[in-house]
Prior knowledge:
This protein is mainly alpha-helical.
Amino acid sequence: MPSDHSTSPAPTPPPTTTGYRELLRNREFAGLYAGFTLTVAASTLSGFALGTLVNDRTHSPFLTAVSMYGATFATVLGALTLMSVADGNRPRRTLVALQCLSLAGVAAQAIPGLPLAARFGLLLLLGFFQSLGTGTRMGLLAEVVPLSAYAPARSLMNITSGGTAILGYALGAVLLRHLSPQGVFLLAAVLTGLGLAAVAATVREHSIRLTRRPGLRRTWTTNTALFSHPGKRALLLNLWVPNGLVVGCEALFISYAPGHAGTLLAAGSAGMLLGDLTVGRLLDPDRRRRCAFALRLLLAVPYLLFFLHPPVWVAAAAVFAASAGFAATLPLQEQLLELTPEPVRGQVQGVESAGRMTWQGLGAALAGGIAQHLDPGTAITAVAAVSVAVTVGSRPFVSRAAR
């Protein structure tokens, strides 16, 4: 038996980082990634078209903001009722079926003369199915890549989401000069269909992680365990609220600068892309966690400048810098995944995503409501100040969760 005094422990090898190229060699991840990218492109185009259509018809900052992010209100219904399907009932088949329903909803928005009430109803329907689809997709992601590659995989998807949104907003602004909103909705439907085909052709069926039948009772049981855990509650609060309030600021761009909204939205997407690339690819997990608080502050502080109604180029620079702070979600998501038992990871990630999207809708509604009584620039500043207050006030609870 070797003596402890005669040998020294071997040095611990540094953690390896999975590269984006290596991830894309995985056929299933590539399929999930392609489907996600096309879905984001479709959502960006359809949201911009709907926001423009509602603004032209109503001239209401509140309705315009809600039309762009209204689908997020229904995501909480999916999180509270049927999110357990993300961990059972043949996840590949479930994801394909949910994307078929999303395709039908996006195509229905292209119907000429559709009343606004019907359009908002479609938004809620799409939001419900989108939440279930996100949970199922993230559950599959945790199976098709190893745990060590999860953060780079999420980072790559976030980067692509930002880049796709940049192109989507820029393309949407150009298309709406030559096409009606209905024509843009049709293009969004085509992209949704291509995303569906990518998933169906590449992703294989995976294990059903739940041992019990998914449904309302199972969803509630898992959610009760999730929200009764103090560390997970703190992480969810910081994944949802500061993020959602800043999205509320973005929802006022059309009302704040109708002729330059595409520029501001594209600047935000570019900043998000840069932040996720830097934090997800260049930093290791420990450094990501150390900079998470600063990133959450960065997410909101630049928007305080909007009280001064700066020139468009200054506003765009502020939006670009602030949006890099969205990368704070990566270390928080890593911590949440580590605290989650494997059999319910799909549901928990679905709840996290649904709550984040719901808070984006709440942030848009709050910002739009304030802008009904104050000018949009002042409303943006007020909502950003609340985001800063939440980030600072909740910092001790997030630190405890990390320990």
